[in-house]
Amino acid sequence: MQNGTRLAAVDLGSNSFRLEIGYLDHGQIQRTEYLKETVRQGNGLDENRNLSQQAMQRGWDCLARFGERLAGFRKHQVRAVATQTLREARNREEFLARANEILGFPIDVISGHEEARLIYQGVAHLLPQSNEHRLVVDIGGRSTELILGRAYEARSMESFRVGSVAWSMRYFPDGLFTAQAFETAEVAAKAVLDEALNTFRPDAWEVAYGSSGTVGAVSDILMEAGWPEGRVTRDGLDWLLERLLKAQSADKVRLEGMKEDRRAVIGGGVSVLRAVFDLLSIKEMQVAQGALRHGALYDLLDREQEQTDQRHASVNRLTSKFNIDQPQAQRVSKAARHLFRLMASEFPASVLDRHQRKLSWAAQLHEIGSVISHSDYHKHGAYILDNTDAAGFTMPELHRLSLLVLGHRGKLRKLDMDFEDDVFVRQLLALRLSVLLCHARRDPDLQGLMLQFNRPHRLALNCRPGWSEAYPQSAHLLHEELLAWQKTPWTLTFSERN
Question: Which of 69, 132, 289, 456 is most open to solvent, judged by the fewest CB atoms within 10 Å of its CB?
Fold first, then answer.
């Protein structure tokens, strides 16, 4: 990206939605605008984990205001991510369908691990560079992320279902503050976070940082009361607890530095933060300026180049972990990229590169399910991708990869996909043909093969004279491929040139 390029990140949190806008300045992103609205979507999940109509409407209204500020931005300049509430919501597709349209940009629901990775990237990019071993804690509305890292590298990441909104609803439902309620809330938080002690033990880090949300709110209150700026200590947390118990309820709390939107969730946030301090033996936590939205901004830059794209590294790790036949994976990948390029002459170079990169990942992972069983390995592979944590990938991106892996062989009717998505159709055809042509596990002869994408719903493959006679098994498989596409809205034809 060029200097001066405007970038924006939207963070759909459980308590607040945030919009960060900046511009690229020699590798750094300089803020020009920041908006935050308390939406409290996390409060809108019912016992069946469905978002209420009111909670969805609050989200849509906020995104409409954000969307107005994003007018003029292009797709590659904006990253919108959603976290725990939308991970949990059973009716999230209903919310997202309208939300994407209102915002004007796709909203990615990210996994807990990916949220933790982006939080760390945001924190690391806004801290002075050093070799210190860091613990980063982010207490959000419905989840808490813990990360160990050094410099820009996040080495251990976990996400736990405990947060300020969820704990306030569960243990302070009427906003009443009692010693028993806080004790119960802290014990419950420790029970959820207990397994973190093995990874995030005190000897694994040197400095603890708190990102966004609860930690920032507590720090503001303590600073106004005379405690050191940008620090949260155990003594400070004890002092704050005393003030909350003295107030007896959230609506009676009068503390300088506490913003009104924090009043309803301060009880849950403080109880979770105290549990983290106790469990990990933290004496002091520094407030970090970076957060999830900053990580999303810097991830936009990383995704521009394959060598810096975290998704590329994740695919390499998966191919190694599942002992994939690397020569065959690279063979299929090379053929798929070539075939897709033949069908995508109308795409600008940057767009073509992004689509080919994603197709290449599917090609490299198409045999990932073989580690379970060669029988129906494409189904096993799709399941693995739908249920893995892969740094850099959003949940929809992994699902799209899983559909390509599931569909690379066999019947096409089994795919729960939109056959009007012509990019996906071209990727799928390129992958199926490349697997077919590489069936003998040697480099295929692609010379003279031509592949055309024609609207409406027509795909045409033709080859040089004599190709079918030279490769009778490939020709036989191609004729079977024609039959598979007959049961879709698309028509695939195959012919030899005279």
Answer: 456
What whole-number distance in Å separates Cα of residue 148 and Cα of residue 273?
A: 17
Coil, helix or strand at residue 127: coil
Using only C-alpha atoms, the chain has a radius of gyration, in whole angstroms, of: 26
- CA atoms of 308 and 207, how far apart (whole Å): 27
pLDDT per position as a tens digit, 472-491: 999 999 999 999 999 899 99
CB-based contact 381:362 (threshold 8 Å): no
- 121 belongs to a structural domain: no
By CB neighbour count within 10 A (0-12 exposed, 13-18 middle, 19+ buried), where does 311 fall?
buried
What residues contact 469, with CB distance under 8 A and at least 6 apart?
none
Element (DSSP H or E) covering residue 157: strand 153-160
Return the biggest CA–CA distance within the chain: 91
Q: Which domain holds residue 35?
A: 6-109+295-299
Residue type, 61: D
240 neighbors 169 (Cβ within 8 angstroms): no
Query: What average pLDDT does the segment 432-444 reach?
Result: 95
Same domain (yes/no): 352, 488: yes
- Taking Cα atoms as reference points, which of 297, 293, 181 lies closest to residue 245? 181
Side by side, the strands of the sheet bearing 78-82 are: 28-38, 16-25, 6-12, 78-82, 107-109
Question: Which DSSP symbol is given to 263?
Answer: G
Q: Give percent above pLDDT 90 in the chain.
A: 85
The verdict on whether omega for the bond into residue 465 sits within 30 degrees of 0, i.e. cis, is no
The residue out of 262, 280, 299 marking a domain boundary is 299
Q: Which residues are 496's β-sheet partners? A: 463
pTM above 0.70, yes or no: yes
Q: Is 308 helix (H, G, I), strand (E, B) or coil?
A: helix
Is residue 114 in a domain?
Answer: no
Q: At what angle do helices 349-365 and 395-407 cross, to 10 degrees?
A: 60
Give the β-pairing of 6-12 and 16-25.
Answer: antiparallel
SS3 call for 199 = helix
Residues 103, 134 share a domain: no
